[in-house]
Every structure is written in structure tokens, then in C-alpha cells.
Design brief:
Blueprint (H helix, E strand, L loop, with lengths): L1 H20 L3 H7 L5 E6 L6 H4 L7 E6 L9 H13 L4 E7 L3 H7 L7 H14 L1 H5 L4 H22 L1 H8 L5 E7 L6 E8 L13
Parallel strand pairs: 1-2, 1-3, 3-4
Antiparallel strand pairs: 4-5
Length: 209
Amino acid sequence: MEEIKKLFDNNLKWASELKETDSEFFSKLSNQQSPEYLWIGCSDSRVPANQIVGLLPGEIFVHRNVANVVVHTDLNCLSVIQFAVEILNVKHIIVCGHYDCGGIKAALENKPHGLIDNWLRHIKDIHRIYKDKLDDVTDEHKRIDLLCELNVIEQVANVCHTTILQHAWKAGKNVTVHGWIYGIRDGIIKDLGISVSGLNDVQSVYKLK
């Protein structure tokens, strides 16, 4: 149980250090949360949202799952997006994948992994859509990293296609969806150049009248 006790010790040290910096930090934090950002990222333990963008508790709202997937039947993810957009009034939704993603790798393997295979079908669907582009990349690591990027692009689109975002934009809310990817090997975030801030950027087949 020494491993668990270490976590409590770390917590006391962390809380004490924050209070030394700002004695009222936790009292102010407990009264409200007003983050400007929603982070949709991977569950990978090497990608801690707050730390890699240098934000304190209360400054970023976070949802994580294997391979940072946004599925229209995932009520957990949709509930997070709705709360962030309609209640917290976040200004930015960041879909952040990462290179060398274990979920992406597993999706490319033709062997069973258990229950998660059902979840990874979403990644396989993306592979099917971009198969020709991916097959042109002969280096395995580069091909995996390309699929990591393509996955982010598709998940940004999935966020934008939700009724939540479309209703928000129709109501005049100022919220932009971004696609980023994080480098496990160097700790640097790369902007994939995808930012959607309104219905004009949503494909017509997905638009709600």
C-alpha cells in the first residue's frame, strides 16, 4: 500500500504549494468554475491536459477516452460537450490526439483485443476512408502518425456535426473547435490547422435546418 500512500503525500504537497502561491486559491475555485476551454483528448497517461498547456485546475474542462474519439452515440462525451458549451460557455473546444497512440496502433492490428475492439472500429472506419492515402506511406511509424492526425481531423468534424454545436452556433455562441496533436517524443503540441467556428464550415449533408 506504500504506492497508494505516496499519492496522498503528493496531494498534500501539491495543495500546500498552491496555497503558498495563492492562499485563497481553493476557496475561489470552490465557488465556481469558468474555463474557456474544453479538451477532448486520449486517456493515455502520458498526455495530461492541464500540464502540457500550463493551465491550473479550473482553467480547462476535460474529457478523455481511448484514442480521443467523438461518437454520436456516446452519451458521456455528448453530455460533456453540452455542459461545456451551454453551461460553462467555453470559447474553445480542443480535440487533441497524440503521436504513437496505442489505440491507433491496436486498430491497425488484425488480432483481437477484447471489448475495446468495438470502440476501435471507429478508428478502422477512418482507416477505410483514407486507405489509399495511408497505403502510400511505406514507413510504419509515419503511417501510424498520419492516422493519428487523420483521426483528429475526423473527430473535429464529429464535434461540429453534433446538434449541440449546431444549435450553439445558430444561437450566436462564440465557440471554435480546434484540431491539435501532441508529440509524446518531444512534448510539443502541433496545430493541424483545423479551426471551425460556425455553420459555414459544416458540410451541407450534416447541417440542420
